[in-house]
Design brief:
Blueprint lengths: L2 H20 L8 E4 L1 H8 L8 E5 L4 H16 L4 E9 L2 E9 L1 H4 L9 E9 L10 E5 L2 E5 L4 H14 L3 H12 L6 H6 L6 H24 L10 H4 L1 H8 L4
């Protein structure tokens, strides 16, 4: 396996352990798991994702800090060297887990000081949140996780695509549209998405244009299990329209 994929697998292992630790802590029940890592661990998305992203219902900064600190403490109990920090930026709760010695133990780096980072964030939106509990299974672990509903995940991904327009947003839109998920209309409206979701997605693809889409495809490739699938992003103007007709 290429070194980049090994790093992705190593981070994914730590993500699963972090979820197991986090969801055993009082206060974590208000966290709904979503984003690329949720798609990967809960729905089989074939790309690595680096962060743990949540939506939160009425979670205070003090509770968030306690949850992150206790997550780090519990992972330290597994023999991992963990540094953690937590804070907030407006409605966004921020967090960081850094693992020292892990990459070195598995010979994934020659830099003795390099630490593997897992960013943890929780947004506190004003709109209604809907959940769909699922089991994350992998690396010998089984973890009950409060996932965001598929409608919430898709709606927030559409808003991300319309905003930042990254390659992973286009790729994930292919994945969710292929499953015929229905995005939460209330979330789309709250985020200011214009018109029908399908038309908004295709307008963004047209705005990005062929040159940008090819560049985004190249950047996405190292994060995919099958690098050739990055071609979906480059060919989005051709391949995506029939997939989003139902929207």
């Amino acid at each position: 396996m290429p070194a980049g994929k090994l790093r992705g697998a190593a981070r994914e292992y730590l993500q699963v352990l972090a979820l197991k630790a986090l969801y055993g802590i009082k206060g974590s029940e208000s966290l709904l798991f979503l984003g690329g890592t949720a798609l990967r661990l809960g729905h089989g998305l074939q790309r690595f994702s680096e962060d743990l992203i949540f939506d939160a219902e009425g979670l205070s900064l003090s509770t968030w800090k306690r949850v992150i600190e206790e997550t780090g403490h519990r992972m330290s109990g597994l023999g991992l060297a963990v540094e953690c920090k937590a804070g907030e930026k407006g409605s966004l709760l921020t967090g960081d887990l850094r693992f020292g010695g892990f990459l070195q133990a598995y010979r994934l780096t020659e830099d003795h000081g390099e630490k593997l980072r897992v960013k943890v964030e929780a947004n506190r939106p004003a709109y209604r949140l809907t959940d769909e509990p699922r089991i994350v299974a992998g690396f010998g672990e089984m973890v009950a996780v409060r996932f965001a509903s598929t409608g919430l995940i898709f709606a927030e991904k559409i808003l991300a695509l319309l905003g930042r327009g990254l390659g992973r947003d286009v790729y994930d839109a292919f994945f969710m549209a292929g499953k015929k998920w229905m995005p939460d209309a209330e979330v789309l409206a709250a985020g200011g998405a214009p018109g029908p979701a399908g038309k908004a997605i295709l307008a963004k693809i047209q705005e990005l244009g062929p040159k940008k889409l090819h560049a985004l495809s190249a950047r996405l490739e190292p994060f995919l299990f099958e690098p050739s699938h990055a071609d979906l992003v480059a060919r989005a103007p051709e391949l995506l329209p029939p997939l989003v007709e139902y929207l």
